[in-house]
Automatic annotation (TrEMBL):
Protein name: MaoC family dehydratase N-terminal domain-containing protein
The FAS1-like dehydratase domain, residue ranges: 73-135
Pfam families per UniProt: FAS1_DH_region (PF13452)
Length: 280
């Protein structure tokens, strides 16, 4: 672990453009007909999730389709990875045609032991700037896990589910997963290679990317708040959402502090993804 902790503080910069074709494709994925494609038109804040891909050469990818560990990412000695959560604050809306830069720093590396065995949390801090300064700051938690076991992992303690003010039925299908992975150039095989997801990583089906669940939760909330934007959110992955599994997109009204709770509900009533967010 000493060598892994030496990775803390490393930084990397990457530039990207909020290009018209990307905005058009995201609008198609989310069934949005109200998005202007003119240069300089504002783009929903949360659509930043489609930018800043890890477009590494094929020769530098690991067996899971992600960039191999040991270059920028630390050489964590655990084979599986998933998104544990993220916290994002938006300071300005990106616009069509903006050139943006993201500086990523490895903020912390934390080993833990959970119900399913050894885990290592790697927190990345992303700072995104644009033509007029700061656009967003994100802290992202990636969880590395042991190889799959023959016995099922013990279930986490249930999370209290609030009373929903609204619910939308949602069944993420392979086309949604493919289109988002293609849009974001995300090569993680658990989102499109069912044989790999099942036989290598031990999942029962394709895993829905956490960014996909977050995207569709926000779109559902914003349909109820025309003209608003996501200003801040704190997302936590509680359990995976699987492809073709009927789910619910749920949300509450704002509490006294102006905060909404959004979540993906499972058929058994459990909460899979939970987001605390401010919308204005």
């Amino acid at each position: 672990m000493t060598d892994i902790h030496d990775w803390v503080g490393r930084k990397r910069r990457i530039a990207d453009e909020m290009a018209t074709p990307l905005v058009r494709r995201m609008a198609a994925l989310t069934d949005r007909t109200d998005i202007a494609l003119d240069r300089g038109a504002p783009v929903p804040n949360h659509w930043l999730s489609m930018l800043f891909d890890d477009a590494q050469p094929q020769s530098q990818l690991g067996p899971d389709g992600h960039p191999a560990k040991g270059d920028f990412l630390p050489p964590v000695p655990l084979p599986r990875r998933m998104l544990g959560g993220r916290r994002v604050t938006y300071h300005a809306a990106p616009c069509v045609g903006d050139t943006l830069e993201r500086e990523t720093a490895i903020a912390s590396i934390t080993p833990k032991v959970g119900r399913s065995g050894a885990m290592i949390f790697v927190m990345l801090r992303h700072t995104i700037t644009g033509p007029n300064g700061l656009v967003a700051v994100e802290e992202q938690d990636t969880v590395y896990l042991e190889a799959k076991r023959n016995a099922p992992a013990p279930k986490e303690a249930p999370v209290t589910v609030p009373n929903a003010a609204w619910r939308d039925s949602w069944t993420p299908d392979p086309v949604i997963l493919f289109r988002f992975s293609a849009l974001a150039f995300n090569g993680h095989r658990i989102h499109y290679d069912a044989d790999y997801a099942r036989d290598v990583e031990g999942y029962p089906a394709l895993v829905v990317n956490g960014s996909v669940s977050t995207l569709f939760l926000f779109e559902a909330a914003l349909r109820r708040a025309p003209g608003a934007q996501i200003r801040h959110y704190d997302a936590r992955t509680i359990q995976p959402v699987f492809c073709n599994a009927p789910s619910l997109l749920c949300g509450t009204v704002a509490n006294a502090e102006g905060e909404h709770t959004l979540w993906v509900g499972q058929p058994d009533g459990a909460m899979a993804i939970r987001i605390k967010t401010r919308i204005a």
